[in-house]
Amino acid sequence: MNNSLLFYSVGALLYCPANRRTIVDSIVSHRFGTKYSLALCLEDTIRDDCVAEAEHILADSLRRLDEQSQMKKFYLPKIFVRVRNARQIGRLHKAFGGSARLVTGFILPKFSLENADGYIQELIKINETTDGSVYTMPIFESPSIIDLRGRYEILYTLKDKLNQIEDRVLNIRVGGNDLCHAFGFRRHDDESIHQIRPVANIFSDIITVYGMDYVVSGPVWEYYNSPNWEKGLYHEIADDKLCGFVGKTVIYPSQIAVVNESYKVSEKDYQDAAAILNWDKSSHSLVAGSAGRERMNEYKTHSRWALRTIHLAEYFGIKNY
Q1: pLDDT tens sequence across 62-72
Q2: Confidence of residue 1 (pLDDT cuts 50, 70, 90)
Q3: What are the residue ranges of helices labelled H in 84-147?
Q4: How do strand 78-82 and strand 296-298 relate by DSSP bridges?
Q5: Are 79 and 36 contacting, i.e. CB atoms less than 8 angstroms apart?
Q6: More confident residue, 302 or 292
Q7: Predicted pLDDT of residue 289
Q8: Handedness of CA 302, 308, 314, 320 (dihedral sign)
Q9: Residue 270 and residue 266: Cα distance in Å, rounded?
Q10: Does residue 239 contact residue 194 with C-beta atoms inside 8 Å?
Q11: Class of the 5-262 domain?
């Protein structure tokens, strides 16, 4: 769904291994700022023989964070747990006990026809048996969507399946590095992933299938300390926005500010969006010049853009320059 602020408020999603024992102190001390979401990963960042230990550390971290939140005020991000398989979801949610209330939802890696039903049924079951809402974010990164002969059918079949829990899907996410890996590609810090045509074409198909109904978040940017990392990130986010993505997966705290700044709405866009949404429906004309007389605003053509723009402004803010 993409018709309310909630679905735009994941923003910059910071990935962190679930066994990072310092994560609670980092959150409480505002090390990551006050506008981000957090993904605690039990999948690619954890060795296969360390999963049980990581689950234990994760449960303990949530318990300590819950205790801290009851003693003092601090920014508590949306927290997501990236699982390895569907069976983990119900088991972990139960193991978290009362601190499960801090978990906004679960991230579903390598979402595909093989695992979609299991994931979805676990989410349905949890939402039927718990107070509040437990959300999810499937990641489209499975090699199965590379094959052109079946890509469209796979994407639309998965969309039909997700319709069962549409109001619980905060974002659709894309695995840029996983898809690049399948081809043996890797972009440099002065290149955008949207220049890699085979991967960009997959992204375009995902936006085409899901973008009218869901918020689709941009792929991870893996540079954080190279000479061009910041300029490169701004460049790629500009491409993300133009191609229909909202928000981005990040892997280092300094990237959060760049994402938040990049998604601020210009004053001109905000004024035009507000004018379009407040259009006098009884008017004989549904077209008018913009406030600055620079472009045309048309109610029927631009209303969806306007609603999206207002949601972005509400979460990320408006540029004052």
Answers
A1: 999 999 999 99
A2: low
A3: 86-95, 116-129
A4: unpaired
A5: no
A6: 302
A7: 79
A8: negative
A9: 6
A10: yes
A11: alpha beta
**pLDDT per residue as tens digits for the range 151-182:** 999 999 999 999 999 999 999 999 999 999 99
Contact yes or no for 273/298 (Cβ under 8 A): no
Q: Do residues 175 and 139 touch, judged by C-beta distance below 8 A?
A: yes
The domain spans of the chain are 5-262, 267-316
| Angstrom distance (rounded) from CA 262 to CA 159 | 29
Task: Find out whether 214 and 220 touch, Cβ atoms under 8 Å.
Answer: no
Q: Calculate what percentage of the chain has a pLDDT beyond 70.
A: 98
**pLDDT of the residue at 117:** 98
Name residue 192's amino acid: S
Collect all residues with Cβ–Cβ distance below 8 Å to 179 and sequence separation of at least 6. Answer: 141, 146, 199, 202
Tokens 């133009």: give the residue: 242
Structure tokens, 319: 């540029």
For 94, the token pair is 């139960």
